[in-house]
Amino acid sequence: QVQLVESGGGLVQPGGSLRLSCTASGSFFSIKAMGWYRQAPGKQRELVTTITSGGSTNYADSVKGRFAISRDNAKNTVYLQMNSLKPEDTAVYYCYLDLVSRTYIRNDYWGQGTQVTVSS
Predict the structure, then answer these.
(1) For residues 110 and 99, is the Cβ–Cβ distance under 8 A?
(2) What is the rounded distance in angstroms from the CA atom of residue 71 to the CA atom of residue 2?
(3) Separation of alpha carbons 93 and 105, rounded Å
(4) How confident is the model at residue 63, as a pLDDT?
(5) Is 91 helix (H, G, I), strand (E, B) or coil?
(6) Rounded to an integer, what distance in angstroms lies between the CA atom of residue 86 and that of residue 55?
(7) Which residues of the chain register pLDDT less than 70?
């Protein structure tokens, strides 16, 4: 009933920029938080950034000053602006959704992932 649609991944040169989007659709009571995680080959999935319904944000130390999360509440969409990209940013990026259902049950959802490759 709840779906996440991701877009914006691709291949970019070091120092370049990409903008990821994730839109939530379906039936739910409210969104508690949205965010982004990433997983590189051979590594654990790690938190990149999150934003709560109240607008509070959190960033991994490795992306502070380079990445920015934002949201459009009317569209249930979260964005990730990635600047000054480095090869170590190469990973599959997953959209994350923390919500309360219409029956007041808390659930989390994951997008299918989008590949970001930073290479010259």
Answers:
(1) no
(2) 18
(3) 26
(4) 98
(5) strand
(6) 27
(7) none
